Amino acid sequence: MTGSELGLNWLFLKRLWRVIRAMTSLKSPAFLIILLIIPASLTEQVAIYYMGLVPSGFYTVLENRDRDAFLSHLWVAAWWVVAIVLIKSSKSFAAGALYVQWRWNLTSVLHSRYLTNKIYYELNCLNSGIDNPDMRITQDVDRLTETLQSIILQLIVFPGVVGYYTYKCWVLMGYIGPLCIYTFFILSCLINKLLISPIAKEVFELERKEGCFRFSHVIFREQSESAAFSDAERSEKTRFKDMILAVLFSKQRIVTRQLFLSLAVNTCDYVGAIFSYIVLAIPIFAGLYNDVEHLGSVISQNAFMSMYLVSSFTTVVDLSGRVADLAGYTHRVGQLLEFLDDKNTGEIFYNQSTNSSGLFQDSISDDSQCLLKQQVTPSTTPTIPPSITLSNLTIWNPVLGRGLVENLTLELSHHNTVLIHGPPGAGKSSVLRTIKSLWKPLTGTVSVTGDNEIMFLPQRPYFTLGSLRDQIALPDQVARGEADHILVGILEEVGLCTDLSVVLGNRDREEKMEDSGGCLGCLERNEGINEEHHLLDTRGNWYNVLTPGQQQLLSFARVLYHKPSILLMDEATSAVNCKDLFYSKLQNMNIVYLSVSHDETLDKYHTKVIRLKGDGKGWLFTKN
Questions:
Q1: How many CA atoms lie within 13 A of 596 on its CB side?
Q2: For a tag on the chain, would you pick the N or C end, based on fewer CB atoms within 10 A?
Q3: How many Å apart are CA 537 and CA 504, to the nearest integer?
Q4: How far apart are CA 268 and CA 390, in angstroms?
Q5: What is the pLDDT of residue 438?
């Protein structure tokens, strides 16, 4: 996307409208809140109008030296003050509620589309052209909704206020006054528009660099042990320095550009204050008020009208800085929404198809780092055994843009369990990606038959920030106490129960973990298991708590829990020693399985072994 496309332009308006539609519908609480803010704002303007007339009343009673009228007028002024305070406070509360509802709505829409059809895989693993989608969904949405809420709060009754005070100025001063004020405002807006567009581009770029800087620290935190073994701190220190300098240079460019915008805005503010008196002087020097007895009161009233009209326009000009930020955030979130909408309403990542038996073939994609289940619609003939057939499959790497294997043909069934060998980069894992429809084959087909539930086990399992119960049941959810003895039995069956005898030391420790979101790097380890649910409710960063071998055993516990018909594994036993136990359980459970591995000792657990040559084309059966 070029810099010229990131300014305050038609593309910005289209994306802003797309975002607003995602945040607000006629049935949304956000729409109701806006409907409540409008009359509150109108009431506020009425109160401000009558409060603005208070000074002219004071001029009159003080000029007449009328003490009773002064006290009466003072009480009236006090009531208007109370009314304005209550209305402004209520508006502020409603604006906060609007922000909360908007952020919930927009985040929910993004999550719904981001987590549909495995679009997150394309965004994060393939060349989607969308940087840092996680930051756009979290930080950019937060800033966009907060900024838009503050702008809307000030502009929601702007047309009505401007129309009313334009009419009053026209009545009091003729057409010359409003014409001069409108000319002044239009010139100010044109100047600010020229200054805002470059800032919007820089805000977009700054958020991108901030996202990369934040993500680099997340990676370093997650890989701290590997970094320590590799003595990576010196090179990372240099890299972090370069990244923060890039962030700060971008921020400095924004600050520099905002200096000129600030000069324009402040000039508009203070010239506007003087300009209102210039407009006020026109009817006075034209002789329109020569016959007025109390000129001071009239001047005060007319000054309020003209100054409030100018003030309404300068309020819009004062929002220039926030509009520049809004444009940057809108382009980032709007660009992500466009991508997600195109993928959800246009051609989904990979088309769904039916196999030769007329059975539904699920084409939903999946992140290779996640353990999720692929549901295939049950066959109309339940007796058909589960199987996967690859026919003349040619696999192309969409990231590197090169071929991996040509015309691969194999059948996976109860009688044909398959092991795939090959050198690094030969395309072993890519076969699983193609079966899962993460990658679209260049030629050939993948057919799934039978009443199937397919599960994938990657080398590094996916663990959510949740309890041990959540890890076993993923992607399902199991309520506390529901089949706890079954879950603990599964842990015992894979040999993890002793290693996972982790309970919280006391209730205070549990509360601290809950307050921290359950994201502790390690957990207290006590002897034995006091209660089943204590073990299953333990929360932590499981990547830090468990060794790689324990992580793979925990992912195998998921297999025992879900009991899939077909299991596809990518180096899923590389860190465990109990491979015999692993595969014997699969055979006893009558699970059809395919393994990808460098380990040739696994040959004995499979009826067929395929070796990919790594030349981008060839493959052969070494055990048939």
A1: 23
A2: C
A3: 9
A4: 70
A5: 86
User: CA dihedral in degrees (328, 330, 333, 336; nearest 10)?
Assistant: -90
Q: Which residue has the tokens 């997340």?
A: 218
- State both tokens at 131: 């940087």
Q: Mark the ranges of the chain whose per-residue pLDDT is less than 70.
A: 1-5, 127, 225-226, 229-230, 288-302, 345-383, 451-452, 478-482, 498-534, 623-624
E strand or H helix at 532:
helix 532-536
Query: In this structure, are strands 387-397 and 443-449 parallel, antiparallel, or unpaired?
Result: antiparallel
Q: Is the peptide bond before 198 cis (omega within 30 degrees of 0)?
A: no
What's the number of CA atoms in the CB half-sphere (13 Å) around residue 131?
15
Question: Do residues 385 and 590 make contact, with C-beta atoms less than 8 angstroms apart?
Answer: no
What single DSSP character describes residue 527? S
Give CA–CA dist 67/125, Å, rounded.
79
Strand partners, 570: 596
Sheet bearing 418-421, strands edge to edge: 373-375, 453-457, 566-570, 592-596, 418-421, 608-612, 619-623
For residue 510, CA distances in Å to 464, 537, 544 come to 18, 10, 18
329's enclosing H/E stretch is: helix 320-345
In the block, residue with structure tokens 């393994």: 595
Cα 560 from Cα 583, distance rounded (Å): 12
List, in sequence order, the alpha helices (H) in 115-231: 119-125, 133-135, 141-155, 158-173, 176-222, 224-229
Q: 385: Cβ–Cβ under 8 A, 6 or more apart, which residues?
A: 413, 414, 449, 450
Task: Return the pLDDT at 500.
Answer: 62
